[in-house]
Design brief:
mainly alpha; Recoverin, domain 1; rod-shaped; calcium; two-stranded antiparallel ribbon
Length: 182
């Protein structure tokens, strides 16, 4: 295929020794669409276009999402996922927010929880939709199983009825026979 169609992180192995971060490779729990939405959101608030969301950009983001944070609150939000301790969020660290949200690891009253909830990227959808589909499939399987059982019962009833009729015919025949043999 064309080089433009290749995912980030493919290509020459060990290029310059720096590992290229591949969101789809590392964050497999998210669909490509979810990852695209997260990247769009990240870029939208990366006002400096430096590949990071710093404290001021995060402040603006939280205000826009309708969950303004205190200065300390913002610092704590960054601290919670800031793995390289540079006091700003890389895209990878930004994705960690959604990973933690999906895993239920964010405190209900934390800014990160609010960010994940208000960002309109529903990381739980896959799970919930999966569960919904699971239950629908289960209900359908139960319905099919009970329909199957119904059919078996109906067949058994039919067989019983036929056996009963056969018994009655035999009895009638025997009775008829006995009238002739007297």
């Amino acid at each position: 295929g064309s080089p433009a169609g290749r995912a980030v992180g493919e290509g020459s192995p060990g290029g310059g020794g720096r590992r290229v971060f591949s969101p789809a490779g590392e964050f497999r729990e998210f669909s490509r669409r979810q990852l695209r939405d997260m990247e769009r959101l990240f870029r939208q608030y990366d006002a400096g276009k430096d590949g990071f969301i710093d404290l001021m950009e995060l402040k603006l983001m939280m205000e826009k999402l309708g969950a303004p944070q205190t200065h300390l609150g913002l610092k704590n939000m960054i601290k919670e996922v800031d793995e390289d301790l540079d006091s700003k969020l890389s895209f990878r660290e930004f994705l960690l927010i959604f990973r933690k949200a999906a895993a239920g690891e964010l405190q209900e009253d934390s800014g990160l929880h609010a960010l994940a909830r208000l960002s309109e990227i529903d990381v739980s959808t896959e799970g919930v939709k999966g569960a919904k589909n699971f239950f629908e499939a289960k209900a359908q399987a139960i319905n099919e199983a009970s329909r199957f059982e119904e059919e078996i019962k109906a067949e058994q009833e039919e067989k019983k009825k036929q056996a009963e009729e056969l018994k009655q015919r035999k009895a009638a025949f025997k009775e008829l026979q006995s009238t002739f043999t007297q």
